[in-house]
Amino acid sequence: DFDILIVGGGHAGAQAAITLRQGKFTGSIGLISAESFAPYERPPLSKDYLAGEKDFDRILIRPESFWAEQDITLLLDHEVTAVDPGAHRVTTADGKSYGYGQLIWATGGTPRRLEVPGHDPQNMHVIRYRSDVDPLMASLPQTNRVAVIGGGYIGLEAAAVMRKFGKEVAVIEAMERVMARVAGEPLSRYYEAEHTAQGVDMRLNAKLSSFKITGQKVTGVTLESGETLPCDMVIVGIGIDPVVAPLLEVGATGGNGVRVDAHCRTSLPDVFAIGDCALHQNKFADGAWVRLESVQNANDQARVVAKTILGKPASYEAIPWFWSDQYDLHLQTIGLSLGHDDMVVRGHPKDRSFSVVYLKKGRVIALDCVNRPADYAQGRLLIMQGASPAHDQLRNINVELKEMAG
Ligand code: FAD
């Protein structure tokens, strides 16, 4: 039994354990993970780890020895399948049971897959865990043509890496533009043009109809238009489903994620939830219920829970930020553009350095900054202050954003 039991060994779970020990928590801490590896960073899986530029050791959140040194018990290869909130116990798939004083649920989400009825094709991959990516990388030498399904961040990052390897790449996006869920149209159009210039066959409004199967492999992706794009690898990047069933089954409030309050408490006694699986009211979305999928959110919510457990209750109010690397384009996002009613493009996309500023009722609520780190840093100020600079001012790159802060 553990005083604190953390379920999930990703960014959120690891950070919660780390912050508890940093805060001199002396009770017992158990960290259960369905994965076989000590906590590691997920973003490199579609970036430099996938590109073979960074070894696994370099993406570990802490060195392998850290956990034992900090007296944090790692229980790897254990999937929690049930929670008994009355008895304060969890059960794992292999029938083991662990008691807890307080439970921190940090399970993230499982990648959505595409079913091919009657088949389990070996060359269809998702990118979420190391166990997804290593087999993908191992089959690259036999791969020439890659079909990426989904034009979100992960699909586009994977497409960029595949181009670096010289593969023929097609990106198949069902919507009218890439990154439609998270970015404004100017950003989408810029990235579409960039991928096209890099040799990617970009297919927008392209709905999948079926897969062509030969043996145990997908050898073509057929679109509703009737066209078949030949391929010898498929990468599916169509989002995740939060892992919350064991909590919802015992009455936790939620749906697409488990609902938490400002201290990341679920509706179950002594059960917190953090990271990709936590549905929370975000101040930067006017208090709307959101589930953020970012390292920032995972780490900051972990810190809130650790502080609350340490007796210094904190509320989750951190400003959201995110990044994405594709080719030589370093995108940094600050704030949440959700609900924007206006946009200003600052700088010139052709210079490979520009920002999209999102406004709502005249106030700056978010920025997407492409190779413009100063805008990213200074834009934060504008958002925090609810500043409302004129469009002309925002457009003028000779004036720094910080000069527009009040
Ligand atoms: P996860 O990191 O998913 O960790 C969840 C852990 O829980 C996993 O170890 C899982 O095995 C385990 N688990 C799940 N269910 C159970 C169970 N029932 N029992 C036990 N263990 C369980 N964010 C950014 O900010 N910037 C980026 O550039 C970026 N790039 C990304 C690229 C990729 C390829 C991916 C997949 C994600 C990326 N993200 C990025 C998102 C970011 O990685 C996630 O938001 C973050 O990992 C969330 O942390 P988490 O701890 O909530 O979930």
From TrEMBL:
Residue stretches making up the Reductase C-terminal domain: 321-404
Keyword set, alphabetical order: FAD, Flavoprotein, Oxidoreductase
Pfam families found in the cross-reference section: Pyr_redox_2 (PF07992), Reductase_C (PF14759)
Transcription regulation keyword on record: no
SUPFAM superfamilies with a match to the protein in the record: FAD/NAD(P)-binding domain (SSF51905), FAD/NAD-linked reductases, dimerisation (C-terminal) domain (SSF55424)
GO CC annotation: cytoplasm
Cofactor(s), names only, from the UniProt record: FAD
InterPro entries in the record: FAD-oxidoreductase/Apoptosis (IPR050446), FAD/NAD-bd_sf (IPR036188), FAD/NAD-binding_dom (IPR023753), FAD/NAD-linked_Rdtase_dimer_sf (IPR016156), Reductase_C (IPR028202)
Residues in FAD/NAD(P)-binding domain copies: 2-302
GO molecular function, one term: oxidoreductase activity, acting on NAD(P)H
The UniProt record lists the keyword Nucleus: no
Protein name: NAD(P)/FAD-dependent oxidoreductase
Gene source species: Parvularcula marina
Upper taxonomic lineage: Bacteria, Pseudomonadati, Pseudomonadota, Alphaproteobacteria, Parvularculales
